[in-house]
Amino acid sequence: MKEYRINIRFNPENEKDRMIVAYLNGLRETQNVSRNSFIIQAIYEKIVEGDRNAALIEQIRAVLQEELASASITTGPDARDEPETDFSFEVTEEDLEKSKGLLRSGLEVFG
Predict the structure, then answer these.
(1) What is the pLDDT of residues 35-69, one digit of tens each?
(2) I need a surface site. Which of 43, 63, 108, 111 has the fewest CB within 10 A?
């Protein structure tokens, strides 16, 4: 098979592109590996990782389906039939006077 070549262009105005270029330029010194072999390995791992993730998701689905098939789900009492709390309160004359005062002051804004 003939060697397959691909050209990649990086935009120097894009921060992500600049970061990748800097990383690729430092590969020889830091990891003693060529840019070409690094890119090939990264693409391969991305493909394999995608396959692994798909297989893992299918395994999780199968386990959940199996567990839920034998599960018994019940609900509590109907909230409409039995209120959880009883709200009762009293309004004092003082509260009423405060409310009337607030209402008057609010209406004064409209003339």
Answers:
(1) 999 999 999 988 888 788 888 888 888 888 888 88
(2) 111
The answer to whether the beta carbons of residues 24 and 36 sit under 8 Å apart is no
Residue with tokens 């791992």: 45
Per-residue confidence at 13, pLDDT binned at 50, 70, 90? very high
Q: 35 near 24, Cβ under 8 Å?
A: yes
pTM: 0.46
Given a contact cutoff of 8 angstroms between Cβ atoms, the answer to whether 36 and 43 are in contact is no
Which conformational region is residue 32 in: left (phi greater than 0), alpha (psi within -120 to 50 degrees), or beta?
left
Look up residue 26 and give its DSSP letter. T
Place of tokens 């970061």: 19
Determine the residue type at 78.
Answer: D
Q: Which two tokens stand for residue 35?
A: 């840019």
Q: What is the pLDDT of residue 53?
A: 82
